Amino acid sequence: MIWCILVAGILLPQSLAHPGFFTSIGQMTDLIHTEKDLVTSLKDYIKAEEDKLEQIKKWAEKLDRLTSTATKDPEGFVGHPVNAFKLMKRLNTEWSELENLVLKDMSDGFISNLTIQRQYFPNDEDQVGAAKALLRLQDTYNLDTDTISKGDLPGVKHKSFLTVEDCFELGKVAYTEADYYHTELWMEQALRQLDEGEVSTIDKVSVLDYLSYAVYQQGDLDKALLLTKKLLELDPEHQRANGNLKYFEYIMAKEKEANKSASDDQSNQKTTLKKKGVAVDYLPERQKYEMLCRGEGIKMTPRRQKKLFCRYHDGNRNPKFILAPAKQEDEWDKPRIIRFHDIISDAEIDIVKDLAKPRLSRATVHDPETGKLTTAQYRVSKSAWLSGYENPVVSRLNMRIQDLTGLDVSTAEELQVANYGVGGQYEPHFDFARKDEPDAFKELGTGNRIATWLFYMSDVSAGGATVFPEVGASVWPKKGTAVFWYNLFASGEGDYSTRHAACPVLVGNKWVSNKWLHERGQEFRRPCTLSELE
Known about the structure:
Elements: E1 3-7, E2 10-14, H1 25-72, H2 74-78, H3 81-103, H4 108-118, H5 124-140, H6 145-150, H7 164-176, H8 180-195, H9 204-217, H10 221-234, H11 239-262, H12 286-293, H13 302-305, E3 310-313, H14 319-322, E4 326-332, E5 337-341, H15 346-356, E6 361-362, E7 365-366, E8 373-374, E9 379-380, E10 382-386, H16 392-405, E11 415-420, E12 425-429, E13 449-456, E14 462-463, E15 466-468, E16 473-475, E17 482-486, E18 500-502, E19 505-507, E20 510-518
Antiparallel strand pairs: 1-2, 3-4, 4-5, 5-17, 6-10, 7-8, 9-12, 10-11, 11-20, 12-18, 13-17, 13-20, 14-19, 15-16, 15-18
Helix pairs in contact: 1-4, 5-7, 7-8, 8-9, 9-10, 10-11
């Protein structure tokens, strides 16, 4: 049922709004197993119903033969004492047994299982969150609705299609968020698939109802009028469309009259109420950020590229790395971003993931005003925190970071493990606290975040890069590697070129773990310089 409200003289469909929510890949794989169990239970129920019907069918066939014979000579049939007895027995006992069989509910087991599993089902928030993730991917990776609907995504193993109902639902989610740009795109896709003959429970009238209003909201009055007329051709009695038609014609008449008085030539120009806008979650740096996510970033000049090297690093003659030095690669020069290859083993990754999975919860960020952790719409992932004393592997990784960076990890934050699933991202941000955020890490008492160490614990089929919009750098996930950069200059001033983002995962699953190292304890490990930007 679509409820209606009146805005600017126009009746429009209204849906309930739900806040954004995110489900991790780990949780969704659990749901896959849950659904598999339910399918098995459903098949058992179907088999039980089939067995029940088979019993009833055999009983009916037996009685059909018996009654066919009896009705040919009723008196002669019941004249036989055995037949008379069996007739009394059937009508008094066997038909009651059949009644009980017919009334027997074979669904108890299935319904019981469904009731138990339902507590783990996603809710409206999860569904809306998944829809928003698709819209986010659509924008970031410049995908058209037809490509997404046909499942033609890079790196996919299991191709999947969107039905008319699916496209309609995506359009409704966008509509609920007052995102009329995406509402138009997905309602048009639903309409195209209906025009191509796809059978659906959604009719064109419902699609055109949303589409015409979304187009009107973006200022294209001519198209809105055309779509409304098309709707009325299908349903001449549609109350809202009839009201909108009168309103649109009234507005257009006023526009033409105003244009004519201003200039005769302007009367033929397209009527627009307002310019078509961009997505509702637009960021000032969004264009550059999305280009980097697509691999369309700034190309480094050959002169700068020549200054990037691969090398073996022994952690400044650290005994652990003299015989087996770490493999280092320069990813970027300013800020200096270094990648360490083969720095975390598959076994270590599995242990870290196993420790984190039971604790995964919505990732948080530091609120600059309160200094406390809070969730934010621009960070969409699941995370967990692991302490070194919990497991020898976590302690070993902490020491490895200290040995290779030369920084004291005793004042660092705990190892944070993050899982980015469908559309998971972390929009452009700084890891360090700026001057207008003096209390960001006050509770920790360890100063600002001097550096960031980031382990990549999975490969990603498509998307999921770490990008630096200020300088145009893109660092792509590679399992078993880690990247490191300083957030602060040696002077203690913040390096604003380290503003970075985690691009949405287009296809696949992204696991990372990061260590934020703080200023306290680094006084002699990384001495201050006199120059502010050194």
